[in-house]
Write a structure and sequence with these properties.
Shape: rod-shaped
Strand order of the largest sheet: 1-2
Number of domains: 1
Number of helices: 4
Helix content: over 70%
Distance between the termini: 46 Å
């Protein structure tokens, strides 16, 4: 297997694992027990107030967290990039080949190299996007963790057992 393909697959696997961890972290709600006999109404009020306090302390509100969908280029647009790169290479190769006396051979070489260059550029862009998404997922995971710690601290301070 090509090392570049293995590298891309590793990056995708890392991204998927990070997204799964983040989704699981968001889905986890702490168990809150009224350790001092608080009523259900008081508990609901305290939870709401602690949610606001934790949001204020961390600058993160999981209830208002907007999910952004990451779009990936379609196969059609990827082929278009390769074809455009090949066409540009063919034109440049034909011009150089005409000077050397064989425009057809120059065009063929230019088309191949232009397509290869376009493919390499696309792979580089995809890797950069994957790295940015992985970093964004890591930051999000840290924000969720900080929020949950602040929320739990607030509830514990009000006399609840939080697990």
């Amino acid at each position: 297997m090509c090392p570049k393909i293995r590298s891309c697959r590793c990056a995708v696997a890392l991204l998927m694992a990070t997204i799964s961890f983040t989704s699981a972290a968001l889905a986890q709600q702490p168990f809150v027990y009224p350790a001092k006999g608080q009523s259900p109404e008081k508990m609901a009020s305290d939870k709401a107030e602690c949610q606001g306090w934790a949001t204020q302390q961390t600058g993160f509100d999981p209830m208002k967290e907007a999910t952004t969908s990451q779009s990936t280029p379609s196969d059609k647009s990827q082929r278009g990039g390769l074809l455009r790169g090949g066409a540009r290479g063919a034109a440049a190769g034909a011009a150089i080949g005409a000077i050397a006396g064989n425009a057809g051979e120059g065009a063929a070489i230019g088309a191949a190299s232009g397509g290869l260059m376009a493919g390499a550029k696309r792979r580089h862009q995809q890797q950069a996007e994957q790295q940015a998404q992985a970093q964004q997922a890591q930051v999000h995971s840290e924000q969720v963790g900080n929020f949950q710690r602040a929320y739990g601290a607030c509830l514990k301070g009000r006399g609840y057992s939080v697990e």
